[in-house]
From TrEMBL:
Region (Disordered): 404-434
Pfam family, one: Beta-lactamase
Low complexity composition bias: residue spans: 405-422
Gene3D superfamilies: DD-peptidase/beta-lactamase superfamily (3.40.710.10)
Protein's name according to its UniProt entry: Beta-lactamase family protein
PANTHER family assigned: BETA-LACTAMASE-RELATED DOMAIN-CONTAINING PROTEIN (PTHR46825:SF15), D-ALANYL-D-ALANINE-CARBOXYPEPTIDASE/ENDOPEPTIDASE AMPH (PTHR46825)
Segments forming domain Beta-lactamase-related: 52-376
Stored InterPro entries: AmpC-like, Beta-lactam-related, Beta-lactam/transpept-like
Gene source species: Sphingomonas arvum
Biased composition (Gly residues): 425-434
């Protein structure tokens, strides 16, 4: 089997004195440094030649500019590669060292960080928000009833995407958090699921109050540094000063401006990194770095707290294999062809991201790309199908005949609204998730 250029790619991803290391991060755990290398011996189920060929075809599609992909099997990185360009028409190639934005994949960082502090006895996940994020105000004094766990699983009672429009206008986040008290409730707190960004950044306040340090600093010290995520940052400057960084593009490949607002809610959408670091993050989430993330923390954040059947509507072209969908503490989970998988997607203007893995197999896929198309999202299920030895499906839609009416509805972008019908006692809501 052709193993493409992954082994060569692994030597290009180390960026010393940049990213989290430059932010005062904790020292990498020695055992984790070895995990940053591509390990051919761990390859088992994925057809890497086929993946490489399909990704080369993908970047020829009109809406795609650049893509970086990482695959993990058996807890080791088995593939890292970049395709396409950092800027459309520039000739500057995407490599495994190219930095992109994670967007809402950042929410898993927030959930993980708060759960780690809970393990340290510094936060009570069942305690009211008012104890930890006093600046976050909710309708009818909801901050006295909504728990930390409710916030991290989008059960605050707010209507979907409360004040995202004002955030995108550049209004100050502390003011917006206080003004959430003026928003009409979408449901009683704790009884429905409704995706948030401004409110979700209450997680950064929780971390800051519990530790006495800024959110970004704590994440760098307790997560990114020990994991070995040398390129990871949480600022606009961190993205734009990287040695190689992908510029954002419209679906028509028009370059866009890198905007500030979602960096102002770092717990909701502020992380940047290269694909190697996202792959390392996935290894840690799959249980491969227990000195950083204990089994207790992982069980806490991945637990299915609220059922989200509207997620199946968003992923409706995959319903042949996607079963029940849930949300935990910054993480989605699914039944996929009888297997439990965990992940998240993200999107801010000009960038998209995904992470999806099977915790039992310690295997999965990560991808980052720099345009508003959702087409690369099908990659995650093509990789999972290989891991499970399922019949091939053209989830990337590379073989679709132009102009032909699709046999199944196109995938709904994560930015579009879907209705959620929650578990008994958890309620329902709507989302336009980033």
């Amino acid at each position: 089997m052709l193993l493409v250029g992954a082994a060569l790619a692994s030597v290009r991803v180390v960026e010393p004195a940049q990213g989290s290391a430059a932010q005062g991060a904790g020292a990498p755990v020695a055992a984790n440094l070895a995990l940053a290398k591509v390990t051919p011996a761990a390859r088992r189920d994925v057809n890497y030649a086929q993946i490489d060929e399909r990704l080369k075809r993908l970047v020829e599609k009109p809406g795609v500019v650049g893509v970086a992909v990482g695959i993990v099997e058996n807890g080791r990185i088995t593939f890292l590669n970049g395709y396409g360009e950092t800027v459309a028409g520039s000739g500057d190639k995407v490599t495994p060292a190219t930095v992109f934005r994670w967007a809402s994949v950042s929410k898993g960082v927030a959930g993980t960080m708060v759960a780690k502090l809970a393990e340290q006895g510094k936060v009570d996940l069942n305690g009211p928000l008012v104890n930890y994020a006093p600046g976050l105000k909710l309708p009818n004094g909801g901050e006295y009833r909504v728990t930390v766990s409710d916030l991290l699983s989008h059960r605050s009672g707010l209507p979907k995407h409360a004040f995202d429009n004002k955030l995108e206008e550049g209004q100050p986040v502390p003011v917006l958090k206080a003004q959430l008290a003026t928003v009409g409730l979408g449901c009683a707190p704790g009884t429905c699921w409704s995706y948030q960004n401004v409110a979700y950044d209450g997680a950064s306040d929780i971390v800051a109050k519990a530790t006495g340090k800024p959110y970004q600093e704590v994440v760098a010290q307790q997560l990114f540094g020990p994991i070995g995520m040398s390129s990871a940052t949480m600022t606009r400057d961190g993205l734009m000063t990287a040695r190689s960084w992908a510029r954002p593009h419209s679906v028509g490949r028009r370059p866009l401006e890198v905007t500030q607002p979602y960096y102002d809610v770092p717990a909701a959408g502020g992380v940047n990194s290269n694909i190697k670091d996202l792959a390392l993050w996935m290894i840690a989430q799959a249980g491969g770095m227990p000195t950083v993330l204990s089994p207790k923390v992982l069980a806490t954040i991945h637990q299915p707290l609220v059922k989200t059947p509207g997620e199946r509507a968003r992923l409706r072209k995959f319903l042949e294999r996607v079963g029940d969908a849930y949300y935990g503490l910054g993480w989605r989970s699914y039944n996929y062809a009888g297997h439990t998988i965990v992940g998240h997607r993200g999107g801010v203007n000009g960038y998209r991201s995904l992470i999806l893995f099977d915790p039992q197999l310690k295997s999965g896929v990560v991808a980052l790309w720099n345009s508003n198309t959702n087409q690369p999202g099908g990659l995650e299920f093509e990789v999972m199908d290989m891991l499970y030895h399922l019949p091939f499906r053209d989830w990337l839609e590379l073989n679709k005949v132009p102009g032909k009416v699709p046999t199944a509805p196109a995938e709904q972008p994560e930015e579009q609204p879907t209705t959620e019908v929650a578990l008994a006692g958890s309620g329902g809501g709507t989302t336009r998730g980033r």
